[in-house]
């Protein structure tokens, strides 16, 4: 069924790890909403296939946390470079410094930059 939804073989394995963690009570999704971002990150990173980008997007979209800026998101980085006319070779650390200027609302900046990315590409 997941292949029919265009999941790769590797993503299917990762989804199975996540489902297994939930079914076996190693991960309680309800508990996550009551935890701070760092605790959620350390909890989710223990699950095979979940990385920092996944945690960031989960925090932003599912838990509506307002101070995240996923540095691993290619579209977001492209949009920031285009919008601010930054060098394509700018370091991740330099981008993090720019994004830190938007604290405590980095998520809002990310949404605006994603929107700009999609609009520029007429999506």
Order of helices and strands: HHHHHHH
Kindly name the structural category: mainly alpha
In DSSP terms (H or I, runs of 4 or more residues), the helix count works out at: 7
Radius of gyration: 16 Å
Question: How helix-rich are the residues, as a percent range?
Answer: 55-70%
Number of strands: 0
How far do the termini sit from each other? 27 Å
The biggest beta sheet is recorded as: none
- Low-pLDDT sequence parts: none
Mean pLDDT: 97
* Percentage of residues in DSSP E strands: under 5%
Identify the overall geometry: globular
Structural summary, described in words:
The chain has helices at residues 9-23, 29-32, 37-44, 52-62, 74-83, 92-100, 106-120. With 123 residues, the chain is mainly α. The longest helix has 15 residues, at 9-23. The chain is globular and about 50 Å long.
Short description:
The chain has 123 residues and is mainly alpha-helical. It contains 7 helices and no strands.
């Amino acid at each position: 069924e997941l292949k029919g939804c265009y999941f790769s073989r590797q993503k299917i394995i990762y989804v199975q790890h996540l489902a297994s963690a939930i079914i076996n009570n190693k991960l309680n999704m309800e508990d996550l909403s009551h935890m701070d971002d760092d605790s959620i990150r350390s909890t989710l990173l223990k699950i095979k296939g979940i990385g920092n980008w996944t945690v960031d997007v989960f925090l932003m979209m599912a838990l509506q946390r307002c101070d995240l800026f996923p540095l691993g998101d290619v579209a977001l980085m492209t949009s920031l470079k285009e919008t601010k006319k930054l060098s394509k070779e700018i370091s991740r650390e330099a981008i993090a410094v720019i994004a830190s200027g938007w604290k405590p609302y980095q998520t809002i900046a990310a949404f605006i930059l994603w929107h700009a990315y999609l609009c520029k590409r007429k999506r």
